[in-house]
Amino acid sequence: MSVGLDDVIAAETVLSHVDGEAGRLIVRGHDVEELAGRRSYEAVAALLWSGFAEEDGEAAVRSALGAARVAAFPVAERLLPFSDGLAPVEALRLMLGALPDASEVPAHILVTAAMPVFVAAIARDRQGASPVAPDAGLGQAEDFLRMLRGAAVPPEHVKAMETYLVTVVDHGLNASTFAARVVAATRAGMVSSVVAALCALKGPLHGGAPGPVLDMLDDIGAERNIEPWLTDALDRGERLMGFGHRVYRVRDPRADVLKAVANGLRGGENRIRFAEEVEAGALDILARRKASRPLKTNVEFYTALVLEALELPRETFTPVFAIGRVAGWAAHVLEQESTGRLIRPQSRYVGPVPRRAA
Ligand code: ACO
What we know:
- The chain is mainly α.
- The chain has two domains: 202 residues, Citrate Synthase, domain 1; 100 residues, CATH 1.10.230.10.
- The protein contains 15 helices and three strands.
- Strand 2 and strand 3 form a beta hairpin.
- The site of acetyl coenzyme *A (ACO) has 19 residues, from helix 14.
- Acetyl coenzyme *A binds next to helix 14.
């Protein structure tokens, strides 16, 4: 028995493959490096959904998502007053849960389009600003940053955001995608499946790591503190955020894509240099202290630096991850609905056995 289901194959998929030994991520026939920075988010969503959904090609997906962002906006406006006191990811959970299972908009389009609309509205609300309505003519990446900032977005920021969204769009049977497929397999529908996925993403061992990565960099503060800080953290039994992965035994290829993006954004050079020093220190100490397990940099380390350079508020990092991952979740739900059986594993009972009545 494998407690974490490490080597269990629980689904067949045409969507993506994580080759942990080679440090390779294939998204529907393409290495992630071929897509990130080269194809739009809409083109990659169309690629993932092809054969499972009606919209065919980048242009059709772009226009369907644009119209659906406009349709989702009133939900954000209506629910913002009820999200007071919630963390952004909790407010996102609330809004996603309010989407209808059946509407004129296909559910995979609605959930994908709603994500940037909701996250931008929640982030602005936390800064005391009213939500900005979507522009149906833009792509998801640009419209998200525009709705968030309430101003036009420089092309290099659009490009960085788009590259980030594509880099994280799908990643095999990770915890949130598995959660989505389990719920989809009961035929509960797209919205419920994506809410389940978001709930799994929220945890710090999955999509909740980038905020804590920046907290760690801030806390370390200066080069001379790197070694003692990391040593103390490991002595306390803590995990270093942004390092380690269940599947990758070598470097996570997404970390390299995002490192290049972070390096290409002006203004944060000192921060990135310092992050590289912390990364080197962490890899060194992990290799010494956890020698039995290769622990390398994962996607979340450089995600943190890209999102920080884009001036996104730290507490929105996990919701922003969901803006990228949602097209992958939706594709897995569509695939599960078209091919899958109910997912129902068994547990081994190790509790007390009832005494037989005499
Ligand atoms: N820092 C320190 N030690 C670690 C780390 C880490 N980041 N990751 C794993 N380890 C250690 C564990 O403590 C354990 O050591 P032990 O054998 O001495 O007890 C050993 O490595 C094996 O750990 P597992 O729990 O079996 O590893 P698992 O495959 O379950 O963990 C995970 C994968 C959750 C990503 C883990 O590496 C981790 O917690 N990393 C930090 C959080 C993080 O960066 N999450 C984002 C992941 S990427 C994503 O989901 C989008």
